[in-house]
Amino acid sequence: MGSELTTDDTAVTESCLYFGRVKHKRLRPFRHRLDYRVFSIYLDLDELPALSRRLRLFSHNRWNLFGFFDRDHGPGDGTALRPWLEGHLAEAGIDLEGGAVRLLCFPCLLGYVFNPLTIWFCYHRSGRLVAMLYEVRNTFGEKHSYLIPVDPARPADAAIQQSCDKGFYVSPFIGMEATYHFRLAEPDERLAVLIRQRTPEGELLVASQTGRR
Fold first, then answer.
1. What are the pLDDT digits (tens) for 36-50?
2. What span, in angstroms and rounded, lies between the C-alpha atoms of 59 and 72?
3. Residue 137 vs residues 5, 96, 140, 144, 152: alpha-carbon distances, Å
């Protein structure tokens, strides 16, 4: 992944790996910082069959060194992810009309994966990014999704800037009265994701992920 991958019937052009760093900075009531190297996968759902056929160490819904399992995302029952997502979008009045669905997450490694955040990029058939879905997990095995439409007036090369109220318990040290502010770019040669969490008392947490394709 990372350069074009061609099979007899499918050309893989979007799916890739990103190597980079994740940083967390806690600001109150005490300051704490984490900074560690990571690699993540950016997958086009329609390209998964071709990736699984051609990459010896990567599989879709089968055990391998690296893998991606539908059961780890969306409804969590192993069913196909695109119908679930399209149903979720339809409830919000959004129709992709067959457009691409791509997600940024960590891969399953030797059967194990934990994704505190999976980011779904939802494209209309025209190629325009129309919605983002932020799928959050906590260490108790629970998950919650924040579906946010993308401003149709946003220029294609501009940063995606969105916000939503916190609606899911994640950390025992952070209450529910908080707001998430997202700023990210559509993944390309570089990956850049920034999340700021604010409470009525002010900014509490800043998290970022950066990487190169």
1. 999 999 999 999 999
2. 14
3. 31, 25, 8, 7, 28
